[in-house]
Amino acid sequence: MAETTKHADLPEHLRQVAEDYERLSQQLMTSHADNPFEAVTRLAVQRVPVARAASITTVRNNEFVTTAATDEVARRGDYIQYELGSGPCIDAIVEETVYQPKDLATDDRWPEYGRRVSSEVGMRSMLSFRMRLELAGVIAGLNFYAEEPDAFDDGDLAEGLLLTTHAAQAIAAAQLRHRSQNLQRALSTNRDIGTAIGVLIAQYKLTRDQAFDLLRIASQNTNRKLHDVALDVIDTGALDVTPHPHH
Fold first, then answer.
1. Are 222 and 244 in contact (CB under 8 A)?
2. DSSP conformational letter for 118
3. pLDDT tens profile 90-109
4. Is residue 205 located within the same domain as residue 119?
5. For residue 185, with 0-12 CB atoms within 10 Å meaning exposed, 13-18 middle and 19 or more buried, which class applies?
């Protein structure tokens, strides 16, 4: 009977998973936040409710940093690893694998970390995954923390793998989209500046370098962005280089 119930619940479970991840993708694609990883950590503890906390570690300038965390518990657990240079999270990223320590207090792979995270933070078990974000130019790992020994089962492991894979794809897609938008804005800005230079060349018989210098001088003296000054030149054909007081 239990097996029948389990299979009967499977379609509903898969539907919920699909909806959660679709929602995550939409949040990441429409978010203008600098840190898209926050949404992933929030979803992580929803999908794996036995987890007390979750965090995402990234590598910046050859140093491990916590980019997102559900709370201070996860940040403290991460920080001890960075301080020691050893732990499930670091090794999962470096070795590109998954670690599931059952009891950190007795795990001989990370004896010092296990002793400290269990006594100082009260965390006894973890799940750590490497997030494959190479397309976005990021090296990262997703971590789950639990207070009880052997808290995570095979279902939690599978859920974590699914989240790690999907979140990595969603973050990479969102970051590539933001880069594309930034590039388009930069190209548009450059075109406008080039047009303004052309207006000044025609209006005042200047060289290209002289026209660009005047745009920069006007930008500095009026405390306005170069692009905004260029748009005024395009609209009016005039350029104000009079120094304005900065407030």
1. yes
2. I
3. 999 999 899 999 999 999 99
4. no
5. exposed
